[in-house]
Design a protein that fits this description.
Radius of gyration: 15 Å
Number of strands: 6
Largest sheet: 6 strands, antiparallel
Oligomer: single chain
Order of helices and strands: HHEEEEEEH
Structural class: alpha+beta
Distance between the termini: 37 Å
Strand content: 35-45%
Strand order of the largest sheet: 1-2-3-4-5-6
Length: about 130
């Protein structure tokens, strides 16, 4: 099957997320291995372990990269645990797809249109998966 047909095939959650995962890799220079966790509403939820903290391993004990994906949008965030067992989440970026072109949007906490409170609560996504 030609590559273009595979990219346009949306028969599995992984294939729906693939264009966004490739853009994330290009944007951030990091290639996480996303695993499909399930659906929440209309969003496909993916998770990837962050394993290399470099010198931050002195203060970060665990981190998960979360992707919430639909056919037209994706939003990425991270949930991390400090060595003191405090847990936090942070938004990384969002992406919108229109006419096959993916627009990357860098996180801005003042941008409520692209980064509403419900969209950026990544800790709740982790808690809901337990």
């Amino acid at each position: 099957m030609p590559l273009r047909e595979v990219e346009e095939d949306k028969s599995t959650p992984e294939l729906v997320g693939l264009p966004y995962f490739r853009e994330f890799q290009t944007l951030h220079g990091y290639k996480p291995l996303f695993k499909y966790l399930g659906m929440k509403g209309e969003e496909l939820i993916f998770e990837a372990d962050v394993v290399d903290f470099g010198m931050l391993n002195l203060i970060i004990s665990d981190a998960k990269l979360i992707a919430k994906v639909t056919e037209k949008t994706a939003i990425f965030g991270i949930v991390y645990t400090l060595t003191g067992l405090e847990r936090f989440d942070a938004t990384v970026c969002a992406m919108n797809q229109k006419d096959g072109v993916i627009e990357k949007i860098t996180f801005d906490n003042k941008d409520k249109k692209n980064f509403g409170a419900a969209q950026t609560n990544f800790m709740k996504v982790i808690e809901d998966q337990k």
